[in-house]
Amino acid sequence: MIHLTLFKNDLKQIVRDPIMTLLLFAPLLLIVVFKLLELFLVPYLAAKTGFDITPYFPYVLSFVLLMNSGMLGIVTGFMMLDERDGNISQLLEVTPLGRNGYLANRLIFASILAIIYGFIGIAVFKLPDLSFFTIVLLSVLSAFYTAIIGLLIFSGAEDKVKGLTFAKGLNTLVLFAFADLFALPWLTFLSWFFPPYWVTMIIKTPDSLIAICFAIVIHVAWLGILIFRYSRRES
Amino acid sequence: MRLLHAVMADIRFQIKQGFYLVYVIITAMYLIIMSFLPDDILAVALPLVVFSDPSVLGLFFIGGIILMEKGQGVLMVLVVSPLRSWEYILSKVISLAIVSVLAAIAITYFSYYPTVNWWLLLVSSILTSGIFTLLGIMINAGCNTVNQYMLKTIPYMLLFILPCFALLGFPYSELFTIIPSVAALKLMLGSFHGILWYEATALAVYLLGINLLLLKFTVRVFENKIVYQD
């Protein structure tokens, strides 16, 4: 009940603050920009250079999903950092909601948005091979990735500037989504341990049970470790 | 001397905050990507990467730096300290330009691009970095959170980045050179692909002028809107 009340309050707060509303719609902007690039730049490139990007569409979709969920994670991370600086999080932690409730509330809110944007992104960049199950799975993994990025920033950064440094560094994780393009064995091996690689793998081989299992395990493991680390540090 | 001390303090702060470390990682990422690009694509991608990331990093970081220093009361101390506002701002611009230049040089050097005019690369990186850092300080006025700042940068980025497509070439596209980002990108591309000396000089002088104008304007905005908050 407390979660629901806070969730409603968060929604109210976001609707009242035009900046937060716009920020939460920013992923839509990214989807639109990429769709426009697909519609106009791809034929232009093909005509000018003969470069056909079609075989790389799974990577483009993976990139869009990761950027969207990463962006939501970064926004959530900074929201929590600002709340920590303003002592709002400490205030909420002593309410019946508690520390874990506060964290869950913030992360679940962003994760739900990530699921919605996941569906929208996949619908806009339709890839014929993706079943409904795969679409749901990718959207849920996007939600996990959002929570992972949000937690990495919130628990890793002591202040806003370090948060920005983290955000900048975390963008490099997207490289792992393209790891198999580079055909570097060490990079591919390293990528196995990071969520972006498995998002691409699921898009490329949606029927592979191994890819699905690994994707779930890696995402859950990252989130689990981060929550454990956060709880231990705070206590 | 005050300025030098301020720059040194800012560099120490940036090292502590991991700016240099994160740019080592980012440079490594770009180098992996660049090493797989064919030469004709590398010729276009490399200047674009140097322009879009290291040169613009000031815009990304300055928002958080000012907000944090405002929160810590550093800006209030600034009012009673001998350090002038313009020195404070210039110190931020110089220290962030150093990170920009080092990252730009590292990415370019290790990409093994055959024909680079290093002096021009240095000049274009410094001038571009200055413009974006000063722009970031102005955008920061009126922001209370990093999210607000990041959102406020979006229209400015669109305003500065979209005209860069004019370099693809269409009738009267030369007119867009008046936009500082287009002039900066032109100079950056010139450092890789070659540029006539008088065109390079004109662009560099123009960008220097824009930097000085922005600095003057930024000092006013910084004092009125950030330090004294009107």
Oligomerization category of the chains in this entry: heterodimer
Radius of gyration of chain B: 18 Å
Main sheet: strands, sense, barrel of chain B = none
Characterize the largest beta sheet of chain A: strand count, sense, and whether it forms a barrel: none
Helix and strand arrangement:
The complex is a heterodimer of chains A (235) and B (230).
Chain A: H1 2-16, H2 18-49, H3 57-85, H4 88-93, H5 98-124, H6 132-156, H7 160-170, H8 179-182, H9 185-191, H10 195-204, H11 209-234
Helix pairs in contact in A: 1-2, 2-3, 2-5, 3-5, 3-6, 3-7, 3-10, 5-6, 6-7, 6-10, 6-11, 10-11
Chain B: H1 2-16, H2 19-35, H3 39-52, H4 57-72, H5 74-80, H6 85-110, H7 118-140, H8 146-161, H9 180-193, H10 197-227
Helix pairs in contact in B: 1-6, 2-6, 3-6, 3-9, 4-7, 4-8, 6-7, 6-10, 7-9, 7-10, 9-10
Structure in words:
Chain A is an all-alpha fold. Chain A has one domain (2-234). Chain A has 11 helices and no strands. Chain A has helices at 2-16, 18-49, 57-85, 88-93, 98-124, 132-156, 160-170, 179-182, 185-191, 195-204, 209-234. The model of chain A has no long low-confidence stretch (mean pLDDT 85). Chain B contains 10 helices and no strands. Chain B is 78% helix and 0% strand. The longest helix of chain B has 31 residues, at 197-227. Chain B has 230 residues and is mainly α. The model of chain B has no long low-confidence stretch (mean pLDDT 88). Chain B has one domain (2-227). The relative contact order of chain B is 0.14. Chain B is globular. At the A-B interface, helix 2, helix 3 and helix 7 of A face helix 2, helix 4 and helix 8 of B.
Q: What's the quick description here?
A:
Chain A is mainly alpha-helical and 235 residues long. Chain A has helices spanning 2-16, 18-49, 57-85, 88-93, 98-124, 132-156, 160-170, 179-182, 185-191, 195-204, 209-234.
